[in-house]
Amino acid sequence: xxxxxxxxxxxxxxxxxxxxxxxxxxxxxxxxxxxxxxxxxxxxxxxxxxxxxxxxxxxxxxxxxxxxxxxxxxxxxxxxxxxxxxxxxxxxxxxxxxxxxxxxxxxxxxxxxxxxxxxxxxxxxxxxxxxxxxxxxxxxxxxxxxxxxxxxxxxxxxxxxxxxxxxxxxxxxxxxxxxxxxxxxxxxxxxxxxxxxxxxxxxxxxxxxxxxxxxxxxxxxxxxxxxxxxxxxxxxxxxxxxxxxxxxxxxxxxxxxxxxxxxxxxxxxxxxxxxxxxxxxxxxxxxxxxxxxxxxxxxxxxxxxxxxxxxxxxxxxxxxxxxxxxxxxxxxxxxxxxxxxxxxxxxxxxxxxxxxxxxxxxxxxxxxxxxxxxxxxxxxxxxxxxxxxxxxxxxxxxxxxxxxxxxxxxxxxxxxxxxxxxxxxxxxxxxxxxxxxxx
Length: 439
Prior knowledge:
- By secondary structure, the protein is of the alpha/beta class.
- The chain is built from 16 helices and 12 strands.
- The chain folds into 2 domains: 252 residues, Rossmann fold, CATH 3.40.50; 173 residues, Glycogen Phosphorylase B (Rossmann fold, 3-Layer(aba) Sandwich).
- Strands 2-1-3-4-5-6 form a 6-stranded parallel β-sheet, with helices on both faces.
- It starts with 16 loop residues before the first helix and ends with a helix.
């Protein structure tokens, strides 16, 4: 039961009113905040931007996650930053770990305590996931307040959280704000039962999703599979542009070296060892064709929480030709030694590892997930099977192992597509055009 005197409580969260509204509606709270206690936006000086000379821009990229770090999002940011700088633009990246750790921790602790009391008094309960998220968002906002956003021509948020935070800071500057979602946000968590349908968590995080879309002047999306999801959140078709992720393999971005004289065929899987990456289905598939693996080596590249479980599965299936290589920083070299690349994912957007394999002339076997079918044409530049289907995986693997000419044909088609459409240069030029159209 809610405290009747909750409105007298001194801490009034007012940075993100859409979150307050969503939670009030969920809990049936009709009382509004005292307007005198809301942020006085008039205190923020309005800046009038000057026209850009010579079309060179100063760009701010924001992320709610640590940067630099190992991961697809961080690689994307680095590629985008480097590509834009090569075009003559100035690019800064801001992430929470760029601020003093002790100050951020103190802020989070203080906000966590304040919100715990506020939620308990206003709603009679306090959800830990919401508490963690909103404390971090408020802390990031307070640190970003010291950044002069007016010096930037473009702000590009790489997640829904910074799209919300930056918008609160950008109300009077009105610098063009772009948003690139790197995952399917709340919808994905509901799909995989990581969040309960109809819960306060769904209401809260859906409000973040919707506001991120509403705040953005334009949405740059990684693949077309995002479109219906974002439309459901209020996005307009003419404010979304698909730009496929580009990578740069440098000296490795060449034709794969001739295979050594040895007769062994190498299958490689590069991915975090997580449940949704589907390794267990690959191992089940290998067990179905065990008699065809005499001269085959299977390399599992990556680390993660499933490592112990997957090693146990391999042992129980008696797959003696499977090797776990752990995390590696020489992926191009490993792929140059490989013949077949398998990505058995059950949930993905547009995996960088597949794009790497395309550049490295691999015969690719993957699944019908996210934007994968947008870059892999089934039976032309690779094979696509249904997720979590060991039988289909086994059939296609068996075919690839048997027919070297087919492997070469699929690999060549994939590499040609990657060289034309999936370079950093191609990606950044398209994004630059979008930026320039908004300034």
